[in-house]
Amino acid sequence: MINDKWNIRTFQVTHLGRSIFHLTFHLSFVFLLALNLLASPALAMHLPTDARAINSSRVPFLSVPSVPQSTPAVQRVAAVGMTVSDVDRSVEFYSKVLSFEKVSDIEVAGEDYERLQGVFGLRMRVVSMKLGNELIELTEYLAPRGRPFPIDSRGNDRWFQHIAIITSDMEKAYAWLRENRVEHASTGPQRLPDWNKNAAGIKAFYFRDPDKHYLEILEFPDGKGSPKWFSRGLLIRDPDGHVMALIEIEKPQSAKGN
Q: Which of 8, 29, 64, 146 is the most buried (most CB within 10 A)?
């Protein structure tokens, strides 16, 4: 019994001694590391973030902010941007066929735009065009040239997007587009079915611009659509000056402001 107790006590003492040794070793290491950092600031640049924070009041690990961060208010959609292969051709299309007006025409380059767009060595020409209160931006990359629109794109592809334009007369607007030989995406104007209560009676037609971006014209029946679409906007006229249709870009329903 005495031997057993002595063995147990010896084990406890030995274990305690090892613990004290390890603690002393770790404290000595931290002390030496601190001295090295004070003597050599350059060494701190190559250490992990938490090691550089030993003599700093900055919290070295991610923490929850004490003050809740407010979400900035979204006011409006400023413009819809599209990349085109020939901006002069696109400007002619959007101005002649869809009555857009050129607002600005600039050329940009430099490191700031390279970082913004994620494209090295870029030079861009950007043209803003206006229809009603809405703006589109047509961008041509003068260098480097980009890839064309995917030829096999479909409406269920995740890169699919389009601009919708309001018309007061689908038949006349469609005839005008046909006269200007636009590329069809739909087979022709379609009337949305009555079982869809929110869209019943709306007429729609998809077509493409010169770079194959999808565009849509819409005609709303009485009781649907924004009243402003039927009271103001720009007019499509035939070569003799006769009014053919009223058009304006459809505003996204989630947009705020003007």
A: 146
Mean pLDDT of the region 116-132: 94
HEC string for 128-151 = EEEECCEEEEEEEEEECCCCCCCC
Longest Cα separation, the chain: 121
β-pair partners for 106: 126
Q: Please answer whether residues 162 and 215 qualify as being in contact, where contact means their C-beta atoms are separated by less than 8 angstroms.
A: yes
- Alpha carbons 36 and 45: distance in angstroms, whole number: 13
What are the contacts of 89-95 at 24+ separation with CB within 8 A? 89/210, 90/127, 90/138, 90/140, 90/209, 90/210, 90/211, 91/127, 91/129, 91/138, 93/209, 93/210, 94/129, 94/136, 94/138, 94/209, 95/129
> What is the topology classification, in CATH, of domain 80-249?
2,3-Dihydroxybiphenyl 1,2-Dioxygenase; domain 1 (3.10.180)
Residue type at 201 in one-letter notation: G
Cβ-based neighbour number of residue 232 at 10 Å: 11
The answer to whether the Cα torsion of 154, 119, 105, 77 is positive or negative is positive
Q: What is the reported pLDDT for 246?
A: 47
- Considering the chain, what is the average pLDDT of its residues? 74
pLDDT score of 252 more than 90: no
Rounded Cα distance between 141 and 215, Å, is 22
Domains of the chain, by residue range, sit at: 2-52, 80-249
User: Looking at the predicted structure, is the pLDDT value of residue 148 above 80?
Assistant: yes
